[in-house]
Every structure is written in C-alpha cells, then in structure tokens.
Predict the structure.
Amino acid sequence: METFRRKVAKQPPALAAADPSKAIPTTIAVFERIQTKTYGRNWRRPVLEGISRCGYELELHLTELGPGEEAHPPHRHEHEEIVMVQSGTIDVTIEGKTTRLTPGSVVYVASNQFHGWRNPTSSCSQYFIITFKHGPESFFQPITGLQHRTNAKKQG
C-alpha cells in the first residue's frame, strides 16, 4: 500500500492526464432541452461527452427502450459502464446471467464483460448509462525498487 501512496504523491495535479482547459465544464442538462435521437421504437438523449479533469473519457446518456426492445445486441468492450434505471423494467444479462431491474436499480459492468439490456414489458423503460474510457489504468501499478521505511531501517 505504501508504494501506491508514494506514486500518487509524485503525480502532478489531476494525474497530468487532462488539459484542464479542455475538460468537461460543469454541465446542467434540463431534460426537455436535451436533443433526442430516435432509432426504431427507442430513443436516446446524449447528456455529455468529453474528458474529465482526471483524464477519463466520460459519456452519459439517457435511453428509452420501447416494449420488448433492446438497445443493441449483447456485446463486450474495454470501457466500463454504470447503468441506472429511471423508470420501467430492464432485464440485464451479464456473462449469461439475467437480472430484472426496477426503478432505482444500479449496475456496474466491468471491462470486457459480455452484457446486454432488454425491456421485457409492454411499456417503455428508461435508464441512464455512464461510460468510463481510457482512465489512468496504469496509475495504480505496483512500483518496484521502493522499500517501506521500516524495512529500509532494518537493512541499513
């Protein structure tokens, strides 16, 4: 644990991963003002997309699935996702296991997990998705060659 703290302490502010002038600004998205993109009986409202001050590529959108619809076929990808059900019912399948989600339910999908969403009901369902891409994965790699202070004293 000590090696991780030392590496963090040596990093410049904001992990030097993003140019603060290009980071996503504070954003207020009023539902009625968000542009809607329709595809079939589904729609999507993109809320924000860009680089956070910590260097993560973030994307947030709201999707509405029509009765019996899915957003796309089950898939996998490198980035991570958080799904938050706003209304209706969503069946989420992750690595072959299906769980029924109701309003207020939250799912975190880790990198490369085979997953998909489906509305199993006869009414519409809405959910938010937040994706995290290209974060500082290498940031918490163990550091070799460092010794804990107590070990250094014993050897010296």
